[in-house]
Amino acid sequence: MELREVTTVNEYPSYPRELSWLAFNGRVLQEAADERNPPIERLRFLGIYSNNMDEFFRVRVADVKRRILLKKYQPSEQEDAEDLLQEIQQQVLQLGQRFNAIYLDIQLELRKHNIELIDNFKLGELQSGWVKSYFRDEVIKHISPMILSGEEVSLPKALEDNTTYLMVEMTGSGKPQYAIVQVPTNELSRFIELPLHLNTRKKNGHYRRQILLLDDVIVHCIADLFAGFFEFDQIQAYSLKLTRDAEYNISDTLDQSLIDKMSKGIRQRLKSEPVRLVYDAAMPEQMLKVLSKQLGTSSVDSLIPGSRYRNFKDFIGFPNIGHQSLEFPAMPPLKSLEFEQYTTSFDAIRAGDILLYYPYHNFGYFTEWVRQASFDPKVTHIKMTMYRVAKHSRVIHSLLDAVRNGKKVTVVVELKARFDEENNINWARKMTEAGIQVVFGLTTLKIHSKLCLISRLERGKVMHYGHIGTGNFNEKTARIYTDMSLFTCHPEITSEIDQVFEFIEYSYRPYQFNHLIVSPTWSRPRLLALIQREIDFAVSGRKAEIFLKVNNLVDQQIVDLLYRASQAGVKIRIIVRGMCSLMPGLSGKSQNIKIISVLDRFLEHARIYVFHNGGETDVYLSSADWMTRNIDQRVEVGVPIYAVRLKQQILDTLDIQWRDNVKARIIDAKQSNAYVKRGNKRSIRSQQQIYDYFARITPGTQQIDSTEE
């Protein structure tokens, strides 16, 4: 059945994406609460939750706040936005209460394993002396307090985004004095282990390992920091953290380079509107009033009382100072026999398309491919997109080697990759200086596709080898994000990859994509047509199914068409990690739609689209979520899987995830995050099962230790 153009859809119910995002972070909190997870990992999930919440306020809440500020021009939207903000604040407070209870529970669990998180109030005399010495020798040199007196200090401009501070109050015979102290986590570890010999308490014949946070080291020695400069009888300090709007305000000045614009945009973030102030709930009311006045917080700012410690995201890296059983067991990445049985990566790809599924497979096969290309005499040109890369990227070092070997190298750098701008700017400068052709693409579109194209001269002809993936070329995230990569030398696909690179540089030229699904221009009509084709099959009485795996599903037009597909009888299954505005299970609207979310030790990041197509199943891998920004405002690429063997592998992994009854939650119309019930079925934890699946289907494979940084 041919694809046909779809232009109009009806309006259907939509779950607010901001509240759906909070439901997602609620699932992260469930992982922290899950006693089946090792205690150190539970603590790290609290760090992930905190980091997610920071981004939520910087992006989502900031957007709601901007809509409220536009009430003069959009009064109806402002009313909805105010109600939404109120609901957000209420849910955030509820999640915060759960967070605090879980943190206390994890602390008790760690104590059973002889690990104790202590604060400055629990220090013995010997421990106190050691902490004071540590403060004098290691900490104080990194601290320069900001004194809040007069007009000299503009606190909104001075405070950095998502950085832990202490609000200090000094009282005596005169007027109270206030100061702000930054906790120097960029220079020192947040977690300070006390020497064992200072702890005389034992359990089961073992010393209890004790960790003190850097925050408490400073609080314990706060009087020593100000003594001699201020007179006071009492001094106290409480933690706080400010979150700002992450939106850019970039000048359109034509004589300013894009790099300079982005650098200025980053500086402007420090001056942008605060959207959240989280503070220690024990902070006295008068201190909070002074702080609020200094910051100039408005009625729509979020003032959120919290626990003693701020910037909990550092707990993502909480050290395991106990037994290895306190962490997840190792899952060393598997070998790929497709690559292993050939001398070069190019020989392997030429023998047939190759699928890698990270972190189950080793990302080193990609870095090795680029390394080989950097010195291969037959390679003439390497093209690559760069969205997020590691700070010490082997991939980029290989590209630098390629230039030194006389290869032509083109790298499309996305300078607007949120929160990775500085890293990308630094790499862009280094690559430009080395002679790499750095392309910044289109100023109005983010380049989010994951492409690499290597041109090789073989028997007098240029042969293209391509990579299309769902994740970034980042050695670090490839160990913790689940992503798929396709390596191919399929001539029509590699030709269209080359066209994508041309489109990025010369967007005004005409292009046609018959295989790839390319955003922005060609993606929406193609996706709508693929869904409509399943509707047409259902209407004609034939089997019709759609199976999706995405991070976010919030594009209203696509969601509306999925509702229509359900009404037509199309069976729809969706695995969504984060936001989902579609409300499944509604009688007469979405009764044929089922949605789950899988959250476990690895971050689910792959995007996969499956359409039954009358029995000739179409399977696509893509960099794009089904969000308006990915479809209309970014350069994204989806690739069809033509190799029958690889198509079946993808379908098998989707089936394993759909049958997960350990880490899968049901996404219902209320997004209540109920776990999929196991019943009397055997336990299926999909991430472990997928790992075992690839180990099983690769005869003779051996587990190998990843050496990636």
TrEMBL record:
EC number: 2.7.4.1
Binding site for ATP: N52, Y481, R577, H605
Domain spans labelled Polyphosphate kinase middle: 127-318
CDD domains associated with the record: PLDc_EcPPK1_C1_like, PLDc_EcPPK1_C2_like
Family according to the record: Belongs to the polyphosphate kinase 1 (PPK1) family.
Sequence ranges assigned to domain Polyphosphate kinase C-terminal in this UniProt record: 345-508, 516-687
Gene3D superfamilies: Endonuclease Chain A (3.30.870.10), Polyphosphate kinase middle domain (3.30.1840.10), Polyphosphate kinase N-terminal domain (1.20.58.310)
Record organism: Rheinheimera muenzenbergensis
Chain positions recorded as Mg(2+) binding sites: R388, R418
Cofactor annotation: Mg(2+)
Keyword Endoplasmic reticulum: no
Function field: Catalyzes the reversible transfer of the terminal phosphate of ATP to form a long-chain polyphosphate (polyP).
Name this protein carries in UniProt: Polyphosphate kinase
HAMAP family in the record: Polyphosphate_kinase (MF_00347)
Description of post-translational modifications: An intermediate of this reaction is the autophosphorylated ppk in which a phosphate is covalently linked to a histidine residue through a N-P bond.
SUPFAM superfamilies for the chain: Phospholipase D/nuclease, PHP14-like, PPK N-terminal domain-like
Active site (record annotation): H448 (phosphohistidine intermediate)
GO molecular function per UniProt: polyphosphate kinase activity
InterPro entries: PP_kinase, PP_kinase_C_1, PP_kinase_middle, PP_kinase_middle_dom_sf, PPK_C_dom2, PPK_N_dom, PPK_N_dom_sf
Domain Polyphosphate kinase N-terminal: 17-117
Catalysed reactions, semicolon-separated: [phosphate](n) + ATP = [phosphate](n+1) + ADP
Keyword field: ATP-binding, Kinase, Magnesium, Metal-binding, Nucleotide-binding, Phosphoprotein, Transferase
